[in-house]
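Listing S7. Sequence submitted for prediction.
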Amino acid sequence: MSRTLTPLHTALSLAAAGLPVLPLRRGKVPFGNCPTCADNACGGRPNMKTPGPCDCPAPCHAWAAATTDPAVIVSPPWASAWRRAVAVAYHPGGAGLTVVDLDDADAITWARTALPSTRTVSTTRGEHWIYCGIMTSHNAVRPGVDIKSTMAYARYLGPGTGTMADLPDAVRALAVKQPSAVRPAPRSVSLPARPGGQCPHRTPVFLERGIAMAEQRITAARSTIHATVYATFLAVLSRHGRCGCLTDTHVARLFTAAQAKGETARHCTDAWNNARTTLGL
């Protein structure tokens, strides 16, 4: 009877094959900064393109901490993370690869007609198409499609099937189109107005300050981006969601800040709707 490999065993196997790996915690996100590196005060890893080196031995810089060194992977700081890990991720760019992340059936249908076939891995909602070659990572290059290569991580979900092809120009071209495809305006915001129609905030300055602080909170996040975006949306809606003063322009500003940190438009919409559901809006 075969035994199920632990995340640590999987990581060591992948590292031996040349994939720089990192542990993912609950929520399938990287471990956050340790106290010494909180808010990137350490300057970041050298390959994060931030000032100064970081000698932190812990896996606390997401994709930039990914490694193929087995001695690092089994070291005490990493060993603690592996015991809490729920999955393994890898840095595609560090292995010379690019992952086209197809998030739904429509995206898969598009890829089968627009892109050359390659190594394919099934995901929870779609597929990863893996090509040999690197490029800059981009989110939301078209509906349901993200590109993960340099400065990004992808969850390892198995070896996949098919023969890996070279990175085609058709994938590189998606990044050229990216500025027009990313950051679409959010859906219309229909929030119930406060009884009597009077906004309790009395002045638009109060709302403007709140939106600006929310943008700053998202922009300053260095880890747990998903959780930060959701918590920020929840805070904004709990304060301004019932008086009718929020407009599509305000929400677009929050979505733009979130997408600048790597969130997709779909994830932003989901986080916004989940926050509204939590508050009963």
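Caption to Listing S7: primary sequence and predicted structure tokens for the chain studied. The CA atoms of residues 119 and 163 lie 5 Å apart. The longest strand covers residues 97-102.
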